[in-house]
Write a structure and sequence with these properties.
By secondary structure, this protein is α/β, with parallel strands linked by helices. Among the domains are: 195 residues, ANL, N-terminal domain (Rossmann fold), CATH 3.40.50.12780; 108 residues, ANL, C-terminal domain (GMP Synthetase, Chain A, domain 3, 2-Layer Sandwich), CATH 3.30.300. The protein is 32% helix and 23% strand. Helix 2 runs antiparallel to helix 3, helix 3 packs across helix 4 and helix 7 packs across helix 8. The model has no long low-confidence stretch (mean pLDDT 91).
C-alpha cells in the first residue's frame, strides 16, 4: 500500500460537550476499550459457544473460539497487504462466515470498517468505495442471481484509492485476490491499539440526498450502543439473524449483542420463512425480531405452526413503521411486543420494556433509553407542548460522531450536540414517543432506508415523464414500500410497473429500492414555493390503507 494519510484522518468528527462525556463514562456507557478488543476478548471468553451459518450454498459450523483465531489470521493477512489503523476496508458479503471474518478482523487491526449491504448495485457500491476512499474491497463472486463481478473492472478505473479487491468464491478475476490467500499468515497475537475516539465503522445509509451518507461511529459510540441495548433487553433465547450484518440491525443482533450476552451466533443468508421456521425448530432459536417484515413473514408462512410462538417468545420491532394492526395481531397471538425508534445516526433513541403497559408497548415507540435525551421542536426551534407534533432532536452515548461529508455534519448536529433527526413525533404525558411523520424524504422498507430522491432521479429519465414523486406507502408486511406518482407530458401515459422495474434494472439500482406501486396524477398539490407536498401524498395513502382495512 502507499504511505498516504488514511482517509479517516481527514474526516471532521464531532465530540460531545465535556460534561456529557463525563456523564457517559460515569454511567458506564463509555469505556476505554476498542471494538477490536471487545470482539477478541468476548470471542475468547465464550470460545466453546457455537458459531453457525445456515445456508444452502455456504453453510458453516464451528465455535466462537475458532472464529477468534480465524479473525486474527485474516487480520494478519490484511496487515500483509499494508492495512493498518485508520485505513478504510470495505466488504460486501451476505451473512456468511467470511462476513464475520471481515468484521472482526478489520476491527482487530484498528482499521475502519465500511460494511456494504449485499444487495446494493454497482451504482451504490461505486459511490461508497469512492466516497470512503476504501483501500481494500472484499466481495463475493456471486450470490443467487447477483453477479458482483459484473462491472467491477469499470468501477476500479474510477477508484484511484482502491488498491486491492478480494473475492470470496471460486471465480477470481485477473487483478484480484482470492479470500483464502489472506489466510496463510500467522495470526496476530491480539488487537492493535487505537484511540477509542477514532472512527470504527462507517455505515452508509440512504437519506434525503440521492447518494448514501457515510455515518461515522467511533469505538466509544458503537460499544455505547451495545451497552445500552444490553441494559434494557433481556438475553432470552439465542436468535437466528437474517438481517444483513452489513446493516446496523444485523451487525448488532448478529455479531455484537451475542458476544455481549455470552450467547452463540446463528446467521442465515436468505430469509425464506419456511426455511427459517424449520431452522428455529431444529436449533431451538428465536426469530422474528427486527424490522416488521421479519415477524410478519413468519406469521404469514404456510409452514407456521402455533407451537412456533413459544420459540419467538418476546419480540422487539424497530427499523421500520409498525402498523397498529400488526401490533394487535402479535399480542392476540400471545406474544409480548415492544417497539423502538432509532436511526443509523442514533441507533437506539427510544424503546419500551416488556414489563411495561401493553398500550404503551403496542402503540408508542417507547421512552428515551438510558443516557438519551430528546427534544421536540417546531420550525422555529422552540420546544412544543405535550401532545403536539415536533421534529425530534436527540443526543446520547451512542450518537454518531459525524458524516464523512462535514457539510452534512454541520447541518445535522447543532452546536449543543443535538441531532436533528428529520422525523416528527409526539410525546405523551408519560414521556412516551410516537413517530407520526418524517421530514426526511426516505422510505423504510423492511428496515432498509430507501432514498426517494435517488429513485426519482432515475425515474425522471423515462421518456415523457414531466414530474415524479416517490413516497412511502403503508405495507403490512414490510412496514412501508415505495409508491411512485407520475405527472406525464400532455398526451402521454404513465409507465406501468413492469416498465418502471425494467428501467431501474437497466439503471443498476438495487431491486429492494424499486417502487412497488404506481399512480398517475394530472398535477400535484404544492407549497407556495412550488414544491410538491409529499406529505399530502403520504397522508392520502395512509387514509386509503386505513379505509381498506376497515
Amino acid at each position: 500500500m502507499t504511505d498516504q494519510q488514511p482517509a479517516s484522518e481527514s474526516w471532521s468528527l464531532r465530540a460531545p460537550a465535556i460534561e456529557l462525556q463525563r456523564r457517559y463514562r460515569a454511567e458506564g456507557f463509555w469505556k476505554d476499550g476498542t471494538l477490536g478488543e471487545f470482539a477478541e476478548a468476548r470471542l475468547g471468553a465464550n470460545a466453546t459457544h457455537e458459531f453457525r451459518v445456515w445456508s444452502a450454498t455456504r453453510a458453516h459450523r464451528s465455535s466462537l473460539g475458532a472464529q477468534r483465531e480465524r479473525s486474527l489470521q485474516l487480520a494478519a493477512g490484511l496487515q500483509g497487504l499494508g492495512v493498518g489503523p485508520g485505513d478504510v476496508v470495505a466488504f460486501q458479503l451476505p451473512n456468511w462466515r467470511e462476513a464475520a471474518d471481515c468484521f472482526y478482523a478489520i476491527a482487530m487491526l484498528g482499521a475502519v470498517l465500511v460494511p456494504i449491504v449485499h444487495f446494493y448495485g454497482p451504482k451504490e457500491v461505486s459511490f461508497v468505495l469512492e466516497e470512503s476512499s476504501a483501500r481494500v474491497f472484499v466481495c463475493a463472486d456471486r450470490f443467487g442471481k447477483i453477479d458482483y463481478l459484473a462491472g467491477l473492472d469499470g468501477m476500479r478505473t474510477r477508484l484511484p484509492a482502491l488498491e486491492h479487491v478480494v473475492i470470496v468464491g471460486s471465480s477470481v478475476p485477473a487483478g484480484a485476490l482470492a479470500f483464502e490467500s489472506l489466510m496463510s499468515r500467522k495470526p496476530l497475537p491480539g488487537p492493535l491499539p487505537v484511540d477509542p475516539d477514532a472512527p470504527a465503522v462507517v455505515a452508509y445509509t440512504s437519506g434525503t440526498t440521492s447518494d448514501p451518507k457515510g455515518v461515522i461511529h467511533s469505538h466509544r459510540t458503537l460499544l455505547g450502543e451495545v451497552a445500552q441495548l444490553g441494559a434494557i433487553q433481556p438475553a432470552g433465547r439465542p436468535m437466528l439473524v437474517g438481517a444483513p450484518v452489513a446493516h446496523g440491525i444485523g451487525m448488532l443482533s448478529g455479531l455484537l449483542l451475542p458476544l455481549d450476552r455470552a450467547q452463540p451466533i446463528h446467521l442465515i443468508d436468505i430469509w425464506d420463512p419456511a426455511v427459517v421456521l424449520a431452522t428455529m425448530r431444529e436449533a431451538g432459536l428465536s426469530g422474528g425480531s427486527g424490522a416488521t417484515y421479519f415477524l410478519t413473514s413468519l406469521l404469514d408462512s404456510p409452514e407456521f405452526r402455533p407451537t412456533d410462538l413459544e420459540l419467538m417468545g418476546k419480540v422487539g420491532l424497530g427499523g421500520s413503521p409498525i402498523p397498529a394492526a400488526v401490533a394487535d395481531r402479535v399480542e392476540a397471538l400471545g406474544l409480548s411486543l415492544i417497539r423502538s425508534y432509532g436511526s443509523t445516526e442514533h441507533p437506539s433513541t427510544t424503546g419500551a420494556r416488556h414489563e411495561e403497559a401493553a398500550e404503551k408497548r403496542k402503540y408508542t415507540d417507547g421512552q428515551p433509553l438510558p443516557g438519551v435525551e430528546i427534544r421536540l421542536v417546531d420550525d422555529a426551534g422552540e420546544e412544543v407542548a405535550i401532545g403536539e407534533a415536533g421534529e425530534i432532536l436527540s443526543r446520547g452515548p451512542d450518537l454518531f460522531v459525524g458524516y464523512t461529508d462535514p457539510a452534512l455534519t454541520a447541518e445535522a448536529i447543532s452546536p449543543e450536540g443535538w441531532y436533528r433527526s428529520g422525523d416528527v413525533g409526539v410525546l405523551d404525558e408519560d414521556g412516551y414517543l410516537t413517530i407520526t411523520d418524517r421530514v426526511k424524504d426516505i422510505i423504510i422498507r423492511g428496515g432498509e432506508n430507501v432514498s426517494a430522491a435517488e429513485v426519482e432521479e432515475l425515474l425522471i429519465r423515462i421518456p415523457d415523464v414531466a414530474e415524479v414523486a416517490v413516497v412511502a406507502a403503508p405495507d403490512e408486511r414490510l412496514g412501508e414500500h415505495g409508491c411512485a406518482f407520475f405527472r406525464m407530458q400532455p398526451g402521454a401515459e404513465a409507465p406501468g410497473l413492469e416498465g418502471v422495474r425494467e428501467h431501474l434494472r437497466e439503471s443498476g439500482l438495487a431491486k429492494q429500492k424499486w417502487p412497488e406501486e404506481i399512480r398517475s396524477v394530472t398535477d400535484f398539490e404544492r407549497t407556495p414555493s412550488g414544491k410538491i407536498k409529499k406529505f399530502s401524498l403520504r397522508d392520502a395513502l395512509r387514509e386509503e390503507a386505513t379505509s381498506t382495512q376497515g
